[in-house]
Specification:
Elements lengths: L8 E3 L6 E3 L4 E10 L2 E8 H14 L19 H19 L2 H4 L2 H6 L43 E9 L3 E8 L5 E8 H6 L3 H12 L10 E6 L3 E6 L7 H8 L4 H20 L2 E2 L8 E3 L5 E3 L6 E2 L19 H4 L7 H16 L9 H10 L10 H10 L14 H5 L9 H5 L56
Helix pairs in contact: 8-10, 10-12
């Protein structure tokens, strides 16, 4: 058996367990690193316990510990899983720190150290990002791409957002000291969830956003062996969701200003035959002046106009249009439903058909009439009733898209040309950040530790991801 050139590093990250309530067990994901290779192993507690008992018999003098079995109580209780995960993490890290144990056949088998090239044949869904299959020769940077972009070109300063696949960092480019928001996505997570099409769709939509004032702009993108990087406009006013949570509701003139800027952004996307599909306060940022910036285009669908439809079931439950819930073909009018939902939430504090029970909420969206509240003006209610029409063919915007929206009486105080030129002063000036230290795996630290994201091969699944526009922002 060939010896590894060093002890492996293992970890069981938080919130990565998979729970199967039908079979009544929890599966924990163990990340294994050996040299430049990394893979996942999914193991049940019973498998940890079996390994523990095997090693205890072979090495009785070693003080090995594992979380005890639970005889009474709910094995799916969050605090219990948290404590068990921490105990299993310490157990497996302790094992690999001892060379004698690390090279034990049972340990190597448990960590799949001799089968890392065939992880897809293991009991659970394993790492699909096999770096041995990738080749830098296959990366298509496009006509304006730059192969020299890399994480170490930036000082990563703080986390300003989080998502399913990674985080968004505030970063300063060393070349010119300019600030950017860099969205860093983990390839393994994307590939394991088969979401590469959504990520590439987001990249494609971002390329078209550079000329609209209320859509976040992409300066360029690049990739390393294990991560994807979007270099975006730095928008430092925080999420609209943050401000809405803090204030509960907005007065009508403030809500009208935000909704008008959102409608302008959606209308622009629709003019490019793009349906956004995921409008919600968490995806809406404010810039330092207080203008709306729409971000996160992972659920965008290209090639959809008022004469085209799609039927993919996606979006956020509170804001799903009835036709999406019914799994019927739908068009870009689903975005106007979402706009109505966001307006309702800004005025009244909750989405229009909200319930803590998801099934009840879906039933409300499909069947319950909109609750009319006397605190809103007649113009606001007229707009809400038009946008939240359950029949998509009758919804405001179904006939003439954005033109129907902007001519509605609710927007009569808005001069749309002034709005889109940012000549209308925002009703609120924000100044917030999300405070969190940047992990060593993403950036240089103060002691100059090397970035754990080398500019090596990139996965064929992301060919064409890297991009840089022909502008002054390109690297020299």
């Amino acid at each position: 058996m060939e010896e590894q050139s060093g002890l492996p590093n293992v970890s069981i990250p938080c919130h990565n367990e998979q729970r199967d309530k039908k079979k009544r067990y929890t599966v924990y994901k163990v990340i294994v690193n050996v040299g430049q290779q990394e893979w996942f192993v999914f193991r049940r507690y019973a498998e940890f316990d079996k390994l523990y008992n095997t090693l205890k018999k072979q090495f009785p003098s070693l003080n090995l510990k594992i979380p005890a079995k639970r005889i009474f109580g709910d094995n799916f209780e969050p605090e219990f899983i948290k404590q068990r995960r921490a105990g299993l993490h310490e157990f497996i890290k302790g094992i690999v720190s001892i060379p004698e144990l690390c090279n034990n056949p049972d340990v190597r088998s448990f960590l799949l150290m001799d089968k890392k090239q065939n992880l897809q044949n293991s009991d659970a869904s394993e790492d699909e990002d096999d770096k041995s299959n990738s080749s830098s020769r296959n990366i298509n940077l496009g006509p304006s791409g730059n192969p020299h972009a890399k994480p170490t070109d930036f000082d990563f300063l703080k986390v300003v957002g989080k998502g399913s696949f990674g985080k968004v960092f505030l970063a300063k480019r060393k070349l010119d000291a300019k600030y950017y928001a860099i969205k860093v996505l983990q390839k393994k997570v994307i590939l394991n969830r088969k979401e590469q099409k959504h990520i590439m769709a987001e990249r494609n939509v971002l390329l078209k956003n550079v000329k609209h004032p209320f859509l976040v702009g992409l300066h360029y993108s690049f990739q390393t062996a294990d991560k994807l990087y979007f270099v975006l406009d730095f928008v430092n006013g925080g999420e609209l969701f943050f401000h809405l949570q803090k204030e509960r509701t907005f007065v009508e003139p403030r809500a009208r200003f935000y909704i008008a800027e959102m409608a302008s952004a959606l209308g622009y996307l629709h003019s490019l035959n793009i349906v956004y599909r995921d409008l919600k306060p968490e995806n809406i940022l404010l810039d330092h002046e207080g203008h709306i910036i729409l971000t996160d285009f992972g659920l965008c669908k290209e090639g959809i106009s008022q004469t085209d439809t799609t039927s993919t079931f996606c979006g956020t439950p509170e804001y799903l249009a009835p036709e999406v819930l019914r799994k019927q073909p739908y068009d870009n009018t689903v975005d106007w439903w979402c706009l109505g939902s966001v307006l309702y939430e800004m005025l009244f504090g909750l989405p229009p058909f909200y319930s803590r029970d998801t099934h009840e909420m879906y039933d409300n969206i499909l069947h319950k009439p909109l609750v009319i509240r006397s605190s809103a003006s007649n113009a606001a209610w007229s707009l809400l009733l038009g946008l939240l029409e359950k029949d998509g063919a009758l919804r405001l915007g179904a006939r003439d898209d954005f033109n129907e929206i902007k001519t509605h009486t609710f927007f009569s105080p808005i001069n749309w040309n002034d709005l889109e030129q940012k000549k209308i002063p925002p009703p609120f000036t924000p100044n917030v950040f999300t405070e969190e230290l940047v992990p060593n795996s993403v950036c240089w630290t103060q002691d100059h530790s090397i970035v754990n994201a080398s500019v090596m091969e990139a996965d064929d699944a992301f060919v064409g991801f890297s991009y840089a526009p022909p502008s002054d922002d390109s690297f020299l």
